[in-house]
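Thread: quick sanity check before group meeting

JM: Hey all, I'm pulling together slides for Thursday and realized we never actually wrote out the predicted structure for the chain we discussed last week. Dropping the sequence here so it's in one place. If anyone has concerns about the input, flag it before I start.
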Amino acid sequence: MEIGIITIHYGINYGSALQCFALSKYLDTTYPDSSISVINYIPERYRPKNRYLGSYKDKNILKKIMYLVFSAPNRFRYQVLFDRFLKKNVPLGKKVFNYTEVEKKYSEYDLLITGSDQVWNTDYNGGVDPLYYLSFGGTDTVRISYAASCGKDWFDENELEKCISLWKQFDGLSIREDVTTEALRKNGFDKTTQVLDPIFLLSENEWKKILPECEIPEPYIFIYALEGDDERAVDIAVKIAKERHLKVVMISYGHIWSRNTRVDYYLRLRSPFQFLSLLANAEYVVTNSFHGVAFSLRFRKQFVAIKRNKYNNRLDSILRLTNLENRLVENTEKIFFDDIKYSDQVDVIIKKMEKKSKDYIDTWVKYQK
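JM (edit): ok, ran it. Output follows.
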């Protein structure tokens, strides 16, 4: 059987790269007689002109040039780092850039899977990208989503009409967030099911076997914060570190001159596996990232999740699922020092959802039209 995965894998994001690795690794290990391929789709927003200039909104040409001069080298080094990781650890196909190229190469695949990550986030993708809705493939191709996410709460009216038309082509729909799962059911897709992110398809021990040795020689709290939340994350981490006598370790995509002086170890240019080793060996984690929380759960870590300015339904959903809503905070005034008792409740929930998630995949791998 030929299985094709389309997801958001390309770019500079630890969660995106690791969820892609996890799904392809699980499929390859569980179904060794199948051929697994990650469709190496590079959407418009990841083209160089958009990656280096498109995210900078100021219309002043001089400021854009200065931004490019100072940020491009750092972005380039990170992109090389992530490209190497993907090429070494993920069964990537040849780069494709549009619908025609994808249709030509993957039209005869037996099973197509879209997800995980925010493949249906129309803000990130500049609208409804039909490739992430598996609008390609042959008449006998089985099409499913696995832990797909739309990131935001829901679609606007025009987007929803397009999405409903595209979802009707699917044989199976599974979603990562509970809110989106229920919304799809209310719109006529009553068999939609909620499953776990692909990172849970690999056990804690399976992850640890592939991770490098931790580079920090003393007990520490680990910070992983996205989109300018550094100060708030450091405020929270420093308070917890003082209480628990820990060093503060922070990983960042930023420039070396942006280091926070309250951080003991400020780390840059680490690969996805190096990042994960740092999280897996931490005593405590502070993060505003969905995958930061997901991996904290996978490695049974004590953690605090920081509420972001938008797209919080991803954090809300996984914390509701595990009955850990009180770990979500907005500032240093509300910090929980009580330890999470994994064996009492969380482990049971995750184990049950792992089985449900794997059963869902197994159903469609073995399904024949």
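AS: nice. DSSP finds twelve helices and twelve strands in the chain. The first helix runs from residue 14 to 30.
JM: adding both to the slides.
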